[in-house]
Each structure stands twice: as C-alpha cells, then as structure tokens.
Fold:
Amino acid sequence: MKRLLLAVGLLVLLSLLIREGFRTRAPRVFTTTSGRIEMCLACHQERPEKVHAREVVGCSPCHGGDPLRIDKSLAHRGLIKNPADLRVVEKTCGQPTCHPGYPERVKKSLMATNRGIIDTLRRYWGEVPASAPAKRPGETVRELMLSSNTSLALDYFRKLCGTCHLWLEKGKYPGFLGEKGGGCVACHLVPGSKEAKHPVLTRRIPVENCTRCHNRSGRIGLTYQGLYEDEGYGAPLIEGEFGAETLEDGRFVDLIPADLHYKAGLSCADCHLPEETMGDGREYVHFEESVEITCESCHGGQGISRKGRRLSKVIEKNGRLILKDNQGKEHPLKPPDPIKCRHPVHRRLSCQSCHAPRVPQCFGCHVRRDPREKQLDKLAGEETPGAWEEFRSYMRYETPTLGVKGEEVVIIVPG
Amino acid sequence: MVSGVLVSYPFHEDIPLVSTVGLETVIPFGSFWRAFHYYTGQLTFLLLIWHLVEALLNRAEKRRPLWRWAFLVGAFPLVTLALFTGYIIRGDQTGLAAGQIAEHLALKIPWIGILIDRLFFAVSEGIHRAFMAHIYLSLGVLAVSGLWHFRLRALKAEDLSLWAVVGSFLALVLPVGLEAPNFEALLKGPWFFLGVQELLRHLPPFVAGVSFPLIPVLALMGFPLAPRPLALILILWTGSYLILTTMGAVR
Structure:
C-alpha cells in the first residue's frame, strides 16, 4: 500500500510539474478602469473604438466567456461571437449598466417583426380576409423562425424575404447575405482598421448599412444614393454593357441624380429618429404607422415629428434652425417656398409631388413557384420543397403618377 | 492547513478576487495549491460527516461524558463554518452571495446576532472578518482534532498520505469554481448551503436560516440524553435537507 501510494504520489507530482511547465501564465491580473477583472486582455489585443475601449469595458461584458480564467477552454466557455444578436442582447448590449430598454423596443420594431411585409403579402394573396385584424399571432419573423407555420405567401416570405430582418444571425449565409442581420450590429457596425482587429460600433449609421436591406421594392436606398436598378431586361444601355455599376447581389445599376440630402452628406439616420428605427415600444404593423419624420419637421416646422417628438439634431443657431448631422456638419434648414409651396392651389400637394420629378418604377412584377424544386427557407435554415422565381416586365425612370391618398395628393410608384 | 498557509501568502484580503485570480492565473503552481486547498477542505468536511456517522453507529456517545461528547460534536459546526468562510473570501459571485446571505441571517438572531456577524461575516465592510475567521476556525479545528482528539485516536501517516494524493489528483484534473460577478437573477451559494437557500424561499429567514440548521447540531450534542428520538430527528432532517439541496441545485 505504501509503495502504491508513493508511486501514485510521484506520478501526480510529475504531472503537476509537466503541466506547470507547459502552462501559459499571465504577467499580472488585468483590470478595467473600474477595477473589474478582465483576464481576456492577457491574450486578446483587439482594440474596439473609444466608447467601448478595452481598458474601460474589457471583453466579457459583451462577449461573455469567463473573464477570470486564462486557460482557453475555460475562458471561452459561453463565448458569444455576436453580442448584438437579439437572442442574447438583454445580457450584452442591453444589460442594466449599458443600454437598458433598447432590446425590448427593438424586438417590437418593424425591422425585427416584419409584420408589415407579412401582413401585406398574406392580404394581397388572399390568405386572410379583409376584415382580419392586422396584428395576428404567429406572424412575426421570430415566431415563424420557431414554428413550421407556412402557406403560399409565408413560403414566399421565408424564401425570398427571410434575410432582411434583425433576427438573422450575422454570417449565417454566404456572400452578401452574410453581411445582413445580427441584431443591433445590422446598423451599428462598420469595419475597423487592420491594427484594431475589431470592428467599430457607431451611432453614425452609414447609408450602406441601411441599404443592405432597403434596396428592393420601393428601392429607396438606391434612389437616395443616385442609383437606378436597371439591367435593361437584356438590352445593354451603356456602350454595350448592362449598367454603370453592379450591386453586391449582382444587380446592375445606372447612375442618376442623387437625392440632394445625400449630396449634402446626410445619411438616413440623420433624419430618421431612433424611435422610428429602433422602435418606440409599440408594436406597429405597417411602416406608415411607425414613421414619424416628415419633410415639414425640418422645412417650415420647428423640429418636431408628426408624433410630437423633438428632433435632437435640429437646433436653433443665430435665430435660425439648423440640422447638425452625425458627422457634426451643420445644415441650414430652408423653409418651404412661401409662394409655390404655400399657394392655396398647392395646399393638398405632398412635397414629393413636385420635388420627386423622376422616380424609378418597376412594372409587371410577378412570381413563379416550381413545386418540383427545393429552395432554402431562410428562417428555418433548411431547404424545403418549392422554389420561387421573381420576374418583372420592365423598369422605368420617369415622372411618377400622382394620386389621391386621403386628403393629400401623393406620388404613386409601382415597386 | 499546509495548503492554507501557501495560498494565504499571496492573498490580500482587501482585494480578494484579484488575489484569487492572481493565484489562478499568475502565480506558478497557484491554481494547483488553491484547488488542493479546496478539495482537501471538502474532503475534511465529508470525512468528518462519515466519522460522525461511524461514531453514532458505534454508540461512541456511551463511552464519554456528555460535556466531552458535546465538545467533540462541536467540531462539526466549526468545520462547516470554516468551509463556508473559505467560500466567502475568494470574493467571486458565489462568495459574495454566500457572504451577504450569511450576514443577513446572522443579523436575524436575537441579542447575539450582531456579535456573530462581526465575528464571522460583516461582508458589507469587506471580507477581512471572514478571512480572519477562516484562519481562526481552522486553527480551532486543529486544536480540537490535532492536539486533543488525535491523542485518543491517532491519525496514521499512511491515511493522511492517501487523502493528500486524492486531493492532489482532484486538484490536477478538476478546476475549482470561480464565478465572475454578473447580473444573473439566480445566485447559488456553496453546494452544502443550497438546502438553506431553498428553504429561505419558503420560510422566514430566522426559521430557515438559523433554527433549521441548528437542529442537527443540537440533536447531535444532546444525543446521549435521548438517542432514539434524536436519531429519528437526525434521519428526518438529513433526508429533508438532501431533498432541499437537490431542489436548490436543479433550479
């Protein structure tokens, strides 16, 4: 017994010495400026931007893991690659000491629920009666992801629309689809420098982030930047080529005059309020219920949205209203022309009726479903029977039709 | 005891978690000695329970006067408290939670609550008192067991070596828990405290956290007076505590 004990004891001692010999030790205990221990910093050299500086925030409040360990297997337990993913965001970005309240709001926003797209599709395709309530249980992106609920319209949504929402895991699908989604970082992330080894989280949302999704249907993101989607349905337009530029998804675009706000350097988030983009806590069904900003909020108004919210970027300077954009650039706000815009004859005209002289329009939209083929259901992440294909008759860049909506004359654009 | 001296050397009670993490990640062999200290402490506790059961089954109380039996049984709460303060002083989430609960429970004891709190816990002022209590309690256990009890029943070097090897082996293969402070709504204290934590959900703090844990201590001390009814109480208490611990563990 004594010999056995001695042998086992020596074996344990030898193992201990070998383990210690191969073990990486940290030079010191790493702490953040608040004194919180972050041993991740012993190995990781990534440098996020100033607001989330490594010395202040560290790694674990966002990325989880165990900040008290340096053994990789222990330190990386429960690691979160994308802290902004809506599945974990309450514990990361939305934790009580950082950005509380936002996850709850964002999850109710249209970019997370897609209620409007789903409701419109099902209604137009005759799957729900006109009298049905707009807000129906089980018809949000998240609920569809967790269920097998389907129909013709829902199958179409799952396969062709299912990557433009905040619940999509970033990098889940290859190519440009992998850039979409990711919760908060769908908007708030821009590439960082090579030296930083970490992307930059920003409140200055660039237009490119919005147009990753807002580039189809009304194509507002493209038109805003002066891009017109037109492959010419097989008719090369420019010196025998299809278009001046190609989008990430392979579509051809021509250059047209950009929106003057874009030319002035304004991005979408300079005008659109956080309550519109991240939700105001209410669960809307359609975009027009959610949107607050109007042309008059800045031009002729007092920097107040149609829901009575003050626009923080509109400020008074030297007795005049200016808009201070995300880059800090100041833009004087011109009031509407007192003669043209205020003339009684024009009182029912919306601003766009005159200020959008030409608009890209897509005619003859139709789709085809081949039940023999399979296609990827982007919400379920698996291929299911039925492959959809979209067609259109032609694109036009011309004066839009005017129509009456309620009491107002508006532009009517097929998209 | 030996491992306790080794881990207390680089330990600074004013920065407990930094010290514990330093032991784990910076100091050579630190993680081993910390784990060895932890597992030998757990083994001491478990072996003491085993020894108690063994003594009860052999009717050891019959061979001693009541005061001496009660004094020996006193080693059990002493070791439990030493183990408990050991959790507190590591300064992590489990330790903080355990310390805060213990402090609140101590303050629920009438008349002597403040004294007990300031002798063993008072974690709202830091872990200094728990740290010193851990050392004094360990020395107390050594005094009871080493200087007096082991004269009655000698501890063989072979047995001691066996458990040292078991402790070393466990320390080599199983890393000791260390939980970063977090915002989780569910906090769990040391494993042997989970039963009390569970009962605290259902009963007033004084009943769940003071009276209930005192039952086995008093029953053991008074065992020679009424062995049969007190044995029944001990069996019922142990059974119910195991159920409560399981309930607390699976939460």
In short: The first strand of chain A starts at residue 189 and ends at 190. Residues 18-79 of chain A form one domain.
